Each structure stands twice: as structure tokens, then as C-alpha cells.
């Protein structure tokens, strides 16, 4: 059995975060993002799963808490950025319709 190194754990967690980031960025339909509860629930579920993986890795002592928090914070920042862009786009679109 292969020993899990901090580098390997960090790489796996970053890959998972990037997979979620890609899921978020590939969502081109801003109407769905802003009005579709299913999309929000998928993202919430993915974020929760990643947070549990990070917590587990921290408990095992494989990664430092700061590293885990950085991974989650970066992903949350990207998600917030996407929602802000969608909100701004909708505001502009609604302004044009008036």
C-alpha cells in the first residue's frame, strides 16, 4: 500500500477543487445560476464534500489547517465572483429591458 504524502494529499484536494471550479465556470446559463435551485444544491453538495475531505486530511495530519483553509477559501472566492458577475449581468440586462 502506498503511503500518502502531504504533497499527494494537497494535489488530490486541489484537483477536486479544480473539478468543482470547472463545474462552476462551465455553467454558461446565468439564468440557471441565478434561478435554478438545483445548480445551487449541486455546488453546495460539492463544496460540502470537499470541506469534509479537507477536514479529514487535516485530522489525519496529512495537510496543515492553513493549506486546507486556503483551498476552500480560494474556491469560495471564485464562486462568489461568478455569482457577482451573474448578478451584475442581470442588472444590466434588466435595465435594458425597461
Can you describe this structure?
InterPro entries: UPF0358, UPF0358_sf. By secondary structure, the chain is mainly alpha-helical. It has a single domain, classed as SO2669-like (Helix Hairpins, Orthogonal Bundle), CATH 1.10.287.750. It is built from four helices and no strands. Helix 1 packs parallel to helix 4 and helix 3 runs antiparallel to helix 4. The radius of gyration is 17 Å and the shape is elongated. The mean pLDDT is 85.
Could you give a quick summary of the protein structure above?
InterPro entries: UPF0358, UPF0358_sf. With 98 residues, this protein is mostly helical.
Produce the secondary structure layout.
Elements: H1 6-25, H2 30-35, H3 37-60, H4 65-97
Helix pairs in contact: 1-3, 1-4, 3-4
Pfam family, one: DUF1507
InterPro entries: UPF0358, UPF0358_sf
CATH class value: Mainly Alpha
How much beta, percentage-wise?
Answer: under 5%
Biggest sheet architecture: none
Question: Fraction of residues in helices?
Answer: over 70%
| Low-pLDDT ranges | none
How many individual domains?
A: 1
Q: Return the structural class.
A: mainly alpha
What value does the average pLDDT take? 85
What overall form do the CA principal axes indicate? Answer: elongated
What is the rounded distance between the termini? 64 Å
How would you spell out the order of helices and strands? HHHH
CATH architecture annotation name: Orthogonal Bundle
- Find the count of extended strands (DSSP E, 2+ residues): 0
Assembly type of the chains comes to single chain
The number of helical segments is 4
**Under CATH, the topology is which?**
Helix Hairpins
Radius of gyration: 17 Å
CATH superfamily: SO2669-like
